[in-house]
Amino acid sequence: MLQPSTTQRLRRRLLAWGTDLRADRWFPQLPLAILLGLGGWWLLRAMPAGSLHTVLDDLLESRRNLPPDSLPSLLIGAGMLLSALGLLLRSRLAWTLALLLSLTALASVMIGRAPHGIHAAAYFLLLPFLLLASWRRFDHSSLTSGTLFALTSVAMLLLYATFGAYYQGAAFRPQITDLTTALYFAVVTMSTVGYGDITPQTSDARLFTVSIIVLGVAVFATSLTAVVAPMVTRSLQRIVNRKGRRMKREHHFVVVGDTPLAVNTWRELSRRGQPVTRLLRRAPDTALPDDVDAVYGDPSDGDVLRQAGADKAQAVMAMLDNDSDNAFVVLAVREIARGVRTVAAVNNASYLGRVKLAQPDVLIAPQILGGELVAMLMTGEEINADFVLHRVFQPPEAAA
After folding, report:
1. Amino acid 174: pLDDT
2. Where are the CATH 3.40.50.720 domain residues in the chain?
């Protein structure tokens, strides 16, 4: 038997440590949220105007001591701090906003003359790569994350419009001399009402006003979608789940995923008269038949698994197309119900050891068998039932 390489041994050890530390609960969202928050705090502390305390005093007392080039750092830094909270919720919207803010911060640092510019540029250059590398883990689209995204976007735009108009007050007729008038102009312009009582007189002021209008339409449309879409989706899912919930979710089977293996497993169990609940990440484009018991949500979330009755099931079969997700499902099932039998599917041979570390009761790897069977047939090797069963149903105790 071939000995595992150093890389494989290191990977297994890291996965084992991750399992012991319950890394699926906090990684990578917690480290990324900390990095993003630190980046936002650095921008706030490194503003040209001096300390954050001085800046807040200038704003609250309506003084014009704050240079206009401090506004980008203020807005980007505040946005990063708010987006860091969304990353903790694994929000896809917060992830998108964090990526955009990181790229904007990188451009701001490279264009401006901030202290420690080289170190800051390297920091904000690394952060987007880390976010892109972990985008699969940020798949939540909830009302909470949507609301956070909407509030963050509207607040940042309102700050940009208000203080931008305030610092360019002399370029308007009549002149904008206080923050109250600047806020009034910002809201009227963002909402595209445009009473016309305050008008821009210079090219810079006109371009600034155009930017407020364009950003206002984009932000309000996106924010409305971010808040309303999860509400509509959740309502539809409740209707679908309530419509399909016709069996008692006890001593049943839970099939996770919509892969061909998952669909065929569900179909064969149903054909044999067994109670089966399908657990899918989202509702399919084509509605399921009325007699199908289905639950929609994150299959590695304990609450979603309990909704599907995984804690009272005979077995939970993780048959997603991502092998790492299958391992996380097995770990989540063990947390809520240790006595429930678990089955994990493996689609890629390179992830076989990773899934074994989750210690499912049954490890099925039908796709791995295909290439080996073809090679054996072509070379005339003998194929027997024991060999096929051993290859299709990998014994978990062989993880070592």
Report:
1. 92
2. 248-399
